Amino acid sequence: MNKHEAAQLVTGGTSNWVKEEGEGGASVNIALCKYWGKRNEELNLPVTSSLSIGLPGLGAQTKVRPAARDAFFVNGTPMDSAAKAAARVFDFIRLFTREPVEVKTESTVPLAAGLASSASGFAALTKALNDGFGWNLSGRGLSILARLGSGSASRSVFDGFVRWQAGEREDGMDSFAEPLEAVWPDLRMGLLLLSDKAKPIGSREAMKRTVETSLLYRQWPARVKEDLAGLQEAVSRRDLTQLGRHAEQNALGMHATMLESWPPVMYWLPESVQAIHGVHALRESGVPVYFTMDAGPNVKLIFTAAHESAVRSAFPEVRIIAPFG
Amino acid sequence: MNKHEAAQLVTGGTSNWVKEEGEGGASVNIALCKYWGKRNEELNLPVTSSLSIGLPGLGAQTKVRPAARDAFFVNGTPMDSAAKAAARVFDFIRLFTREPVEVKTESTVPLAAGLASSASGFAALTKALNDGFGWNLSGRGLSILARLGSGSASRSVFDGFVRWQAGEREDGMDSFAEPLEAVWPDLRMGLLLLSDKAKPIGSREAMKRTVETSLLYRQWPARVKEDLAGLQEAVSRRDLTQLGRHAEQNALGMHATMLESWPPVMYWLPESVQAIHGVHALRESGVPVYFTMDAGPNVKLIFTAAHESAVRSAFPEVRIIAPFG
What we know:
Two copies of one chain form a homodimer. By secondary structure, chain A is α+β, with helices and mostly antiparallel strands.
């Protein structure tokens, strides 16, 4: 099954505008258990399930409408149609319609925040298309479609804690995200922006190289299995120690598989290592703080409201976010 | 089988001085394929085989003699008998004799060079005891005994390229090192001393934690198998690219298993990551240079004589060693 066929299977193949303009919004998410490695490159089908938390207030609000020619605006600025971001957007839209479309996105994701804006971008775009074409899709359908644009976008369809089930089917129809019931008002995430330089290698390529060359990666599914179970239990019990431990070990495990790939993939900068040691020192001093990292140099802290001031003292540059408002 | 029984099995249980003074010398070694993880803590039996290269000129020359009381001198300075280093030395000597012994070691290993001085220390001590007690042991016997003092000391019994065979026996009598035939006059190692601070956790403890808590470690034997084969082929063909690749991937693989342990073991400092990126940048510029790292923050470069000046330009502080003189 190719991408186009998968898209048609979800939408029923209809692509007539039922509104002058479709609209949808979605937040970025931070994976506490990572999506690392695909079993199907074209359909973005993952090797393992994953679990994330949405960051409300950081994301995309997108409008789509029929137009004379393709056009893509981000925060009012027209994007060059030859640029990679625009190419990915219209490759995605072509799964549904051959007619030209105008896409206007308002993004509140700081471009240099070390947050994957493609997750919220494709989730918002999928919702906007669903609105414009009147597909009336369920969350599950939206998640499957968003996944075709960007794997982690499957999770950004929902807010709060979200689990993306890897699924087993060849066509990916069982590979979608679902929200967990739990909320955790005291939970805090702290963003440490350590570098806004372009990454030496894209995460898509890094993931591929890991799957193809890392021997340790063969144990990645075992790492994920343990962390997913631990994280879900931690969420249900609001146990920060357990949540943090599994998130941190999972992130370090992902970077471990990259480091052991060939050629090695090292996203870490000296500043990343300094921040990691800083987290460990703070933890040893008695403050329950943990971290996660995506495929990049930046570090994201995990803690609770009670320890905000301790975290802020140790990391004055931190940007603190309350995922549950 | 305990340590004492193993020692008796090798020496035949004799411990009568046949000389007024026994003497022996040994060099430090750098593992190109690491010893990481024990299958028997007491006998220092490794999970996997390993492969190293000796650094002539950096090591220990040791003299032992019967004395009125235990005494341990390093470069003329008496060591406190309660200190860890002296305790390990006399725990080792007690495997062979209850009589007090005076040990005098001249070490040319800079204490802060990030080189394991225990490897050359226990290998030299074993040779000195063999000389003093007249055991007339083969290299194999010396290697087994040295291993009881410190795992990697089993390799320092020999010079040049050395392979330590893990063995399978419970008593460890098939777990010893052997020299490879090959020499490689153009090979160079470059020592980058990045920190002389005490390590946050000893390698013995880090190894144990990795074996007990890292899931990725289950693939470590597969990593070693591939690297040992690749390294031996590289040595026989004097193929620096292949040697470097396997040494670097093996070292990163070892650190990967530590990082994914819990609590995570991170020996890297910001300076380590900077040096790693520096090696990669130099390699991308066309200079065939690779690195290895032990359980610490320091980086050891691997290259050939033809590229000494390029390496020295990129790393002015490097200390270059020719393992084959």
